[in-house]
Automatic annotation (TrEMBL):
Gene3D superfamilies: 3.40.1280.10, tRNA(m1g37)methyltransferase, domain 2. Homodimer. The keyword S-adenosyl-L-methionine applies. One of its GO terms (cellular component) is cytosol. PANTHER family: TRNA (GUANINE-N(1)-)-METHYLTRANSFERASE. Specifically methylates guanosine-37 in various tRNAs. This is tRNA (guanine-N(1)-)-methyltransferase. HAMAP family: TrmD. GO terms for biological process: tRNA N1-guanine methylation. S-adenosyl-L-methionine binds at residues 112, 132-137. Keywords: Cytoplasm, Methyltransferase, S-adenosyl-L-methionine, Transferase, tRNA processing. It catalyses: guanosine(37) in tRNA + S-adenosyl-L-methionine = N(1)-methylguanosine(37) in tRNA + S-adenosyl-L-homocysteine + H(+). It comes from the Bacteria.
């Protein structure tokens, strides 16, 4: 999986290569991360990439020409790929979109700054716009890093255990179940007995029930969107009645 990132702060994005899952994936050749700085494509000696907005108002707007040149250079270097602009007015990133991106093989991520980018660049070069939530951060770099991390986890071989991604929160449209490790008792709190039983079917049923209960309590919208089978509904009913299997 290759990620090309158009950014004024490449060092911020490439800091991912030194840590964690993405860093290991890059070392193993499973993920490639390439950055393109629009300043390198500016046509004046000052490396200008922004200008005052037409119509007045505070802040600056990123210019079309250097961004367009950077995007086209990225396309030429790695072949055709969708350009995704990170912006609060985009579609909210969710598990389904992450999965879809992981199947593409390559994406170009455009990081805005200041008041955003000239709308004409979006019309000319951008294929989709993504948001990480209904709030504003200082630029597109952090959202791009979130996209990279989330998508990279789904690339085959990136996670150490083959089932890790499939058991993540949202992988089945549900929040994750609670997890425990040693010791068995701490602060007067005990690990649930079922997890010590060695009964793999019972453990799987308990984990599903916990995931259903947590999702119903914290994110009922996910339940409504996903729907439940008859057996899942029965597990959820027992959870809500306090009959934990």
């Amino acid at each position: 999986m290759r990620f090309d990132v158009i950014t004024l702060f490449p060092e911020m994005v490439t800091s991912m290569t030194a840590h964690g899952v993405v860093g290991r994936a890059i070392d193993q050749g499973l993920v490639e991360l390439v950055t393109w700085n629009p300043r390198d494509f500016s046509t004046d000696r000052h490396g200008t990439v922004d200008d005052r907005p037409y119509g007045g108002g505070p802040g600056m707007v990123m210019k079309v020409e250097p961004l367009q040149a950077a995007i086209r250079a990225a396309r030429e270097a790695g072949g055709p790929a969708p350009v995704i602009y990170l912006s609060p007015d985009g579609d909210v990133l969710d598990g389904a979109r992450v999965t879809g991106l992981s199947h593409l093989g390559r994406v170009i991520l455009l990081c805005g700054r200041y008041e955003g980018v000239d709308e004409r660049l979006i019309e000319l070069e951008v294929d989709a716009t993504l948001s990480i939530g209904d709030y504003v951060v200082s630029g597109g770099e952090l959202p791009a890093m979130i996209v990279i991390d989330a998508v990279a986890r789904l690339v085959p071989g990136v996670l150490g255990h083959a089932e890790s991604a499939s058991q993540d929160a949202f992988a089945d449209g549900l929040l994750d179940c609670p997890h425990y490790t040693r010791p068995e008792t701490i602060g007067g709190l005990q690990v649930p007995t079922v997890l010590l039983s060695g009964d793999h079917q019972a453990v799987a049923r308990w984990r599903l029930q916990q995931a259903l209960g947590r999702t119903r309590a914290k994110r009922p919208d996910l339940i409504e969107r996903r729907g439940l089978s008859d057996s899942e509904q029965a597990l959820l009913d027992d959870y809500r009645a306090g009959h934990l299997n």
